[in-house]
Amino acid sequence: MNQFYNNVKTAVLLGLMTALILAIGSFFGSNGLMIALIMAAGMNIFGYFFSDKIAIASVRGLEVGPEHPVYQIVEELVQRAGLPMPRVCVSPLGAPNAFATGRNPQHAAVCVTQGLLDILDRNEIAGVVGHELAHVKHRDILIVSVASTIAAAISYLGYILMWGGGSRDRRGDNPLAMLAMIFLAPIAAGLIQCAISRSRELNADTEGAGIAGDPMALATALEKLHIAAQRVPMDVNPAMNSMFITEPLNIARSIGNLFQTHPPLEARLMNLIGRETTGRFRYAA
User: Fold this and answer.
1) What is the pLDDT of residues 164-210, one digit of tens each?
2) Exposure of 190 by Cβ count < 10 A (0-12 exposed, 13-18 middle, 19+ buried)?
3) pLDDT tens, 22-46?
4) Active site residue 132
5) Mean pLDDT of 108-120
6) DSSP character at residue 173
7) Scanning 69, 90, 112, 138, which has the fewest C-beta atoms within 10 Å of its C-beta?
8) How far apart are CA 189 and CA 171, in angstroms?
9) How many helices (H) and strands (E) does the chain have?
10) CA-based diameter of the chain, in Å?
């Protein structure tokens, strides 16, 4: 039921983003709107097919084989989850974190940092891997790519409006509406995009706890990662924040939770503690 609710919430949020595009589109002729959509879609199609290589290269990840303990954990959990074996990579970064990438389960990769391996035990690492495999299972890369495409299109349209684009008949109708479209629509798109990411993270926590078979291991892992992230920040592009299991430290934290791509730690822990008390795990051994 929780997964169904979050899927519906994601669909509604994507619908709101689409509505923003239509609202901005009212200021344009058909040509301007089409160009912006094509540019945004082209950029995100490239990211969709090459996001795994870009993401892994950004953290200097190296692929490991069956002799590595993390590979062995992933191999065990994909069998429980009924997924194909992804590529397994380890980044030398000291900041503790992990992410999954790839356009579908057949082209997936799971990457963990050395900082994560240094502070988590085997069960906690399994909880983190379960979370990332849940993202693969739910095809969250596709959902985030769609949201990114729409958000980028809205930003392009706002940029065009700012520099005098749009239909001459509409530009003089309502200057306040024009200003709102230029400045507020991209912000609204970013907020919706973050809300979609937060929804998918809770889904992945729930499913990941089931795959690993121990929600408390994931809960303790999240708590350790959250504390360690305050001491060892991760220098990555903020556009990549939604990929990681915990949000890398960045300026968004200084202006509240609105632009954070992950739910508050307390909400994630309560979600997992609730799963522990019910004792229902689809993949538990």
Assistant:
1) 555 544 444 555 555 555 565 556 656 666 666 677 888 899 999 99
2) middle
3) 565 556 556 656 766 676 666 667 7
4) yes
5) 96
6) T
7) 69
8) 22
9) 11, 4
10) 67
CA 274 – CA 143 distance, rounded (Å): 26
Q: Which of 124, 132, 201, 247 is catalytic?
A: 132
Residue whose tokens read 């929780």: 2
Q: What is the CA radius of gyration of the chain?
A: 20
Any residues with CB less than 8 A from the CB of 131 and at least 6 apart, and which?
A: 98, 204, 205, 207, 208, 209, 218, 245
Q: Given this model, what pLDDT does residue 26 score?
A: 55
- Residue 74 CA to its chain's centroid (Å): 20
pLDDT confidence band for 280 (50 / 70 / 90): very low
User: Taking a C-beta distance cutoff of 8 angstroms, is the pair 212, 266 a contact?
Assistant: no
**Alpha-helical runs (H) found in the chain:** 2-25, 30-58, 69-81, 114-119, 122-137, 140-162, 168-171, 175-179, 185-212, 215-231, 265-278
Both tokens of residue 187? 């912000």
What single-letter amino acid sits at 110? V
* Segment 133-152 mean pLDDT: 74
Can you give the residue ranges of every domain in the chain?
2-278
The pTM (predicted TM-score) of the whole model is: 0.73
